[in-house]
Amino acid sequence: MNSVISDRPDIRVAKRGRPESHAWDHFTKESLGSGHYSAKCHYCATSWSKGRPETLKAHLALYCSQVPLNIKAEYMEMLAVGNTSVNRQQQSNSNDSSTELDINQTDKIDQALVRFLSVVRFRFLQWIILIF
Fold first, then answer.
1. Phi-psi category of 33—alpha, beta or left, where left has phi over 0 and alpha has psi -120 to 50?
2. Strand (E) positions, the chain?
3. Crossing angle between the packed helical segments 103-131 and 69-93, to the nearest 10 degrees
4. In 3-state terms, what secondary structure has residue 41?
5. CA dihedral defined by 106, 108, 111, 117, rounded to 10 degrees?
């Protein structure tokens, strides 16, 4: 696979390996070598010694208190859609149809739903205010 270079600033340079997640747009990253980076949130300054895209997405969707609502909603939707497809794949691969969630998983799901519904309610109220 050859590297592709573009003159357009809105197109990322293709590199070997996986494409860079857009979640990194919201984090400062410092190279640790061998393709790994530390991460620091632009909004709340939370940092990770080794940033992983899925962890960064979850932070933006569920844990960052200072991220703009439109970004939070975008990443909540990404997590919801991604988790649904992963769950379906796991269910189709599993012979046991009575898979149960432990209490920690249930709590995390409840917290994510509350946060998501809060964002949706806030956006709905903004829309109502704009109409009237």
1. left
2. 27-33, 36-41, 47-48
3. 140
4. strand
5. -80
In angstroms, what CA-CA distances link 34 with 27, 87, 129?
19, 31, 50
> What whole-number distance in Å separates Cα of residue 40 and Cα of residue 27?
5
pTM of the model as a whole = 0.54
Please give the Cα distance from 46 to 90 (Å, whole number). 32
pLDDT tens string, the chain, 132 residues long: the values are: 444 444 444 445 545 677 888 999 999 999 998 889 999 999 999 999 999 999 999 999 989 999 999 999 888 888 887 754 444 444 445 454 445 677 778 778 888 888 888 787 777 777 777 776
